[in-house]
Write a structure and sequence with these properties.
By secondary structure, the protein is of the alpha+beta class. It is built from 20 helices and 17 strands.
Amino acid sequence: MSRTKLKLIITTAALSLSLSGCVGGPIPDSSAPITQSEAQAGAEAHPELLAEFGGAMTGSQAVYVEQVGKNIAVQSGLGNARDSFTVSLLNSPVNNAFAIPGGYIYTTRQLVALMNNEAELAGVLGHEVGHVAARHSQRRQAAAQRNNLLGAAGAILSGILLGNSGLGQQLGQTLMQGSQLLTLKFSRTQELEADTLGVRYLNQAGYDPHAMATVLQSLAAQNALDARLQGRDNATIPEWASTHPDPASRVATANASAQGMSGVTNRDTFLTRIDGLLYGDDPKQGVIEGREFIHPELRFAFTAPQGFFMVNGTRAVTVNGQSGKAQLSMGQYNGNLNTYVQAVFAGLSDQQQVTPSSIQRTSVNGLPAAYGTARVASGGNQVDVTVFAYEFASDRAYHFLAITPAGQASTFNGMFSSMRRITAQQAGNIIPRVIDVITVRSGDTVASLASRMAYSDNQVERFRVLNGLGANDGVIAGQKVKIVVRGSRCSTFRSGKGKGGRIAPAAFSIMRRLLRRCSRWSIRCLPC
């Protein structure tokens, strides 16, 4: 959740409309160059997607990803592919990659950090190039006009509670805004076709085509690990591994497509290029530490209920559990909390009025607050919708929007009462995590290396997934591996201009060497 105001919230409807311009008329053949209408549609949606996913990173790592993406795009056979494709490395802690018409392909830094060689990066980007070349977005929407190009649909967060009614979908979409859960969704057939195209592009470019299978394997392992860490029975968060369905079952298909082929992986080059890459939450968007959400820039924190998991986005934080869903975000505030709460309720549905029985005023840890709950009938179910707002300044307020089964609104009472300001010292203690590429030494083991991971739990499991290691795989002296370590406050250089600017991970390796020298020379590093 960034400092950016919610003046320009991205909704699934707005993005779907912006992409719909390429649907009318005949769909170009898969070998046809990107058309002017496709390019225009993509160009209109591109800035909004960048904003939703933390902005485009810059620096040597972004240039590297762009180079690999453009090189693999050439293998598609589309006319002028190198110049027609725009490849963006997104500053997002979500494992995601996607494409939109017009040659715009995206991958997040988190997904890049999960990869273990350049061939895997080329495979993921090649998969997305395949979606563009095969015009999957246009064909998907042409087959079903009511299909949402950002396909996460409202049912993800509220379907269990609200059913598939119109109100349920609207509330679900409201809960997704700013959460980085918005992503493209294609049919299973289209996903398999994109996998096949990705394998073909890898082979043509001289990469090992089996990299498509290995990155899918890592995605499946990461999704399963996330599910266990979050206490979920299945990996249902709509990240790349789930919106691109069933990565585990696609491994065999990808391997079969690559049978008899071979090529390079460029493992060491890749690991060298991603050394120092920001990993996990960007402190400028707030960080999740266990059940705590802490925002060092906006100076607040809250605690999620036991058994719930959080997903942090550029403009919102979602809180998910079996007994309810909630989201923290902000809106336009004129100094009147009652009016603010009423405005949130008024914006929930254009199909029926959602009105709280009353709005109560209170104080939470010294913060002026107001809240209200409305009982809503939808899809044959009764649910309670609660808005709980806090004033942090005369022109700044935040609010939770929570949905629970009827009579269970108290599920989030502990979270509501945990909202608090944090001190400058507490904010300064939030240090980002980064990828540190190291060389295995004689005597090192998976356990000893994993103990250096900047996590208090599941260190071995995290290390194995991060490095694509199976349960029985070990490490070999001289091999390069990734660990996740704490960076430094001096690693918070901006990687771009404006709101999208974040850490410049490429500078981290240099800063790390300088910090080591600072320590050795007893020189204090000043806060950036």
